[in-house]
Amino acid sequence: MVTLGELADRLGVQVSGDADCEIFRVATLANAGEGDIAFLHDPKYRDLLDNTNASAVIIDETFADDLSVNGIIVKNSHIAFAQVVAWLNPREPKEGGVHSSAIVDPDSQIHPDVYVGPQCVVEDGVTIAAGCELGPGCVVGQNVSLGEDCKLVANVTVCHDVKIGNRVTLHPGVVIGADGFGLANDNGRWNKVPQVGSVLIGDDVEIGANSTVDRGAIENTVIENGVKLDNLIQIGHNVIIGADTAIAACTAIAGSAKIGKQCAIGGCVGIVGHLEITDNVTITGMSHVSQEITKPGVYSSGTPLEENKKWHRNFVRLKQLDDMARKIKAIEKKIDQDKPGN
């Protein structure tokens, strides 16, 4: 439990209302009750503010005049709320030690306060820095290095020679450093091309459940500082993702694509290999990126959902566009020829 005043002090802002109001939990505006703190950031939820039972609300300056309960007024309530959630729900670090069922190679270097959970395997040459936690079933391959305060939640596989920075979180089922899809066609038969690069992951990266980052073919796949990847994402070999880029679930990035810094990529986006996307680009969900993006901005592709019969008619017309363009060009040419003086 904390008081509203204590939360406001941590955020460096003033309280509107009762600073001694006791806060125990976070909740939504719709479902909050006594002892809960909620937040309002999106205007479409403005109407919920009038009827909320929350003890307090974190609110954007835009809505300050609408606040009728205890509150904290900030410039960005979403960011402030995230901080409050963390303060009210602190992560309890596990006590250091190696579970009796774990297998740890004696040639590995593991800081004494590292926790290695049940059924983990840590191979030779591994270096694991202070504050790390390996949840049940994790595999850390030869010569891997983990920086400080990393958390491998459960059943995470980090393949040989991968380098991971500080404060990295890998959620259940993540695989880092599996072979990239490197194949050479020999008269109809596919021959594997050995993948001899690795994966370099910077600080403060978070990778969601069952996502995969392939190792490089020759050089390295690189995930820079602050990158956030959602669940079920495929990152191909030799991809580079710039700092502080966020990518939503089910996106696939083919090999050797380069994504800039501070990009936001929606869910189920497909990005063709060997192209470059500049910094500060937003790509909306379900888009297909088949050419380079050289200017910051918001980009979209794909056909929006519509009634099936209408979609079929439009699809038929789409297939006719090339013929229609040729006919229009021929008509324009004839009009120009028929003009007086020609």
How does this structure look, described?
- This protein is α/β, with parallel strands linked by helices.
- The chain has three domains: 2-88, Udp-n-acetylmuramoylalanyl-d-glutamate--2,6- Diaminopimelate Ligase, Chain: A, domain 1 (3-Layer(aba) Sandwich), CATH 3.40.1390.10; 97-299, UDP N-Acetylglucosamine Acyltransferase, domain 1; 308-338.
- The protein is built from four helices and 39 strands.
- The chain is flat and about 85 Å long.
- It starts with a strand and ends with a helix.
- The mean pLDDT is 95.
Number of strand elements: 39
- What's the name of the CATH homologous superfamily of the largest domain? Hexapeptide repeat proteins
Per CATH, what is the topology of the largest domain? UDP N-Acetylglucosamine Acyltransferase, domain 1
Q: What is the strand arrangement across the widest sheet?
A: 8-11-14-17-20-25-28-31-34-37-39
Task: Bin the strand percentage.
Answer: 25-35%
Tally of domains: 3
